[in-house]
Write a structure and sequence with these properties.
This protein is of the alpha/beta class. It is built from seven helices and ten strands. About 35% of the residues lie in helices and about 25% in strands. A six-stranded mixed β-sheet has the order 6-7-8-3-9-10, sandwiched between helices.
Length: about 220
């Protein structure tokens, strides 16, 4: 008997009202993602990729349809439940790393644990271990301004994974990086997927890098093609 998927998406749709006009961004998406899958999501600009990721991570609410995580309707929770889901279950990485410039790499990576009120010593240990994992063991005390673009994105990745979330969502994580550095970040995601069993959905406009990931989906005009 096949195990139940980690994520089941049923008829997912999102429509925005712009004055008297309705903008239908997602048009009924059905999808299953198994635990441990590494999925690339591609598509033209405006296809709804970021909207899809925001719904998957409960940063936005669907107009219709359901997102089931481990069999539970994500949007059946109250506001407190959604906030806990985002903090405890999801790790986010965006195109812009959003690091705090006055803090070191280690302090930035500790933030999710401190927000969850993990003891400071434990938070420091977890963040240090993850920075080692992403290859920044020698750069922990450096501030973002002292790091390259690729190193800053690795800090953002360590921060996202500090609490070992069940799902990593990455929205154009290499969009601001040169091709060689971008390949390094994608290779790191693939390595973490194998070594740690991370489930991840990666939105990217880079078709060549997407093709290197184990599973590839394409979003066109709000539908999976």
């Amino acid at each position: 008997m096949q195990p139940a998927p980690l994520i089941r998406i049923e008829g997912l749709g999102k429509t925005y009202l712009m004055g008297e006009k309705r903008l239908e961004v997602l048009r009924g998406i059905d999808l299953e993602i198994a635990a441990g899958e590494l999925v690339a999501l591609t598509g033209p600009s405006g296809a709804g990729k970021s909207t899809f990721l925001h719904l998957l991570g409960a940063l936005d609410v669907p107009t219709r349809g359901r997102v089931l995580f481990e069999g539970e309707d994500v949007f059946g929770r109250g506001e407190d439940g959604l906030a806990a889901f985002r903090n405890q279950t999801i790790g986010f990485v965006f195109q812009s790393h959003h690091l705090l410039p006055e803090f070191t790499a280690l302090e930035n990576a500790m933030m999710p644990a401190l927000i969850r009120r993990v003891a400071r010593g434990d938070a420091r240990r977890r963040a240090a271990e993850m920075l080692e994992t992403v290859g920044l063991g020698e750069r922990m005390e450096h501030r973002p301004g002292e790091l390259s673009g690729g190193e800053q994105q690795r800090v953002a990745l360590a921060r996202a994974l500090c609490l070992q979330p069940k799902l990593l969502l990455a929205d154009e994580p290499t969009g601001n990086l040169d091709p060689q550095t971008a390949e390094g970040i994608h290779a790191l995601l693939a390595d973490l997927n194998v070594r740690m069993g991370i489930t991840a959905v990666v939105v990217t406009h880079n078709e060549r890098l997407a093709a290197a990931l184990p599973r590839r989906l394409r979003l066109v005009q709000g539908r999976l093609a």
